Amino acid sequence: MKLKQNKNYSLMNDIYFSAALNDNINVTTDIIKTVLSIDDISITKVTTQKRISQINSKSLVLDLYAKDINNNVYNIEIQRVKQKDLFKRTRYHQDLIDVYNLKRGFKSDNLPTTYIIFFCLFDIFEKDKPLYKVEKYISYDGGKIPFNDNTNLIFINCKYKDEKTNLGKLIHDMTCTRDKVRWYNSIKEIKEGEMKMGYYAEKIRKQGYKEGKESAQTTFILNSLNAGVDIETISKICNTSIKEVIEIKEKLK
Predict the structure, then answer these.
(1) Which of 43, 117, 147, 195 has the lowest CB atom count within 10 Å?
(2) Rounded CA gap, 123 and 103, in Å?
């Protein structure tokens, strides 16, 4: 099923993000380079809606999973709503990514360097800063020393406005509709994302059921409404009545 094509989507729309960035090395590379302020990086693989499953544990679906030529791992997440369990969820992301990348018989030294990056539509720490990086330290009486386990957790404040910096330019181009992108050519050149949105919307909805979430459809409808998807399209994707979608929409008010 295809959604109506238009330019009213931004990369902060979960479904559009998944559709537009799957296998899109150029946009993914630009995002990572800008966030990390690193020029020398070569991304080799990009997958959106990456499922990581383990026996006897809850599955995890990553918005975007990427690797570079040095086997470093990147997980990019789109976070539209502030959630109380967000910090603990980042811990689960790190745990399952590590388990997924440590094959049987390998030593812990084989674990890759990981970067988990959350793009948030809110200022998670309310300090009016564009980027917050979690750093680990060992504290002792009189001081502290860095604890480097090669894990990196970063939160991007997408409410931040300052297009004089590279990160500010990226935030602008990720939060605006596609017709208003002005800094990153790789984002301007996205053409296939909207055509694939129906496929990814259905994929995300089915994943919710596979995880055993009783409220998966309601959550999907709420997220789709927040993302700007029209009621008629949601109704068709979810195989439910327009009336039911409107009733759920009332919960947003």
Answers:
(1) 147
(2) 37
